[in-house]
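Re: the 372-residue chain
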Amino acid sequence: MKLFFVLENAKRVGGGDYCIFKYAQFLAKRGHEVTLYAKNKSAFFDNENFPATFRILCRGALQKHFKGYELVNKFYAFLYELIIIKPLIKKEKPDYLVGYLRDSSSKVRLLSKQLGISALHFVFESPPWMEKDLKERWHEEYQGKFRKSWESAKQAYMDADVLLGISAKSQKECEKWTSHKVLGYVYPGLDKREMDKIAAKKKNQIIYVGRLNAYKNIDDLIRALSLVKNALPLIIVGGGEEKDNLEKLAKELKVSVRFVIEANDTQKYKEIASSQFMVFPTSHEGFGMPPMEALYLKVPCICSDKEIFKEIYEDKVDYFRERDVQDLKRVIEKMLASPSYRDRRGLKGHQYVKKKFDWAIAAKQIEGFLSK
C-alpha cells in the first residue's frame, strides 16, 4: 500500500502531529511505501533508523518575524505543491492521502479532489466537544480564521473516503458533529524498543510534557506547587505561546521551573524517566499521550478528571478535580509523601500500558481498516 501523509505542523510539534508522524513511521516499518510531507522540520525527524520505505519531505516556512509572513508562507506553499508535491503524487499514485485536524485535512481534501485519490482522515477533537470542555475560553477563541478552519475541516471529514478516530470518545464525538460514519478508532502507541533503551537516574523533579497553551492549565500546576512545602522543581518539556507568562508566574510565586523547548524522543524519555512523577492538568485533550509515556517508564502520573483520560487510563493515574488548585495540591502532596506509593503506581501503570498501547499494533490496525 502507498500512503501520502500531509503534516501541517508548527515548528514545535504538538501531540496530534507526533501521533500522525508515528502512524506513518510504523506503517512504513510494516513494508508500506510511506511519504510524509511536512510543513516544518522537527527534532522528531532526526532518526537514522527509519525504514527505507519511509520518506520525509519538509517544505519549510517562515516563522512569525514580520508583518505579512503568513501571505509569504501561503504563496510559497502554493508554489511548492504545484511544482513538487502534485507532480509527485500524480507519478506515484498513492492509495490514500492522509490528513488530520484542520489545516492538514483541508489540504488533503483539496488534493484528493484535484488528483482523484482517496482521502483518509484521523479525527481527534471536534468543536462541540471542545466547547463542552473549555466553555467560555472556547467561545472567545472560536471565531474568525480559526472558526473557518474548523468549518473547512468538517467539510473535509464529510467528503472523506475513510475516517478513523484515535479513541472511542473521538469517534463518537466526530460522528455526532459530522453525521458521517467513522470506521473505527486506533489508539496511539509507544515506541517500546526505544523506551527500553532509556537508562536515567532519578532526580528530585516533577515533569509536564506538552504544548504551552492556556487550556493546558500549567499555571494551575505552578500555583499548586507554590502552596506545597518543599516542592520539587518542575521540568516543562514543550513550547508554546504561554511560555513567557509561565516564566513570569513561576518567578512571582518562587517556583523553580526549567523549560526544555526542543527535545527529540530520546531526550524527552530521559527527562520523564528522571522525574518522580508527571502532572497533566489540561482542560481538553483529544487523547493525551504524555501520561502513557510516563507510565511505561514506571513514572506515576496525576491527571485532571476528564472523561477521555478515564477511557484511556482507567484507574492507572491519580485524578484531581479540573481547575481546582487546592485539590491538585492535595494529590501532589500525597504523591510526594510516599516513595513506595509512587513505585506501586508506576509499576501498575507500566503493566497496563505495556499490554494496551503499541505503535506496531496501531499500524496493523490501520492496515486492517484500510483493507476492508
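The chain has two domains: 2-189+358-370, 192-356.
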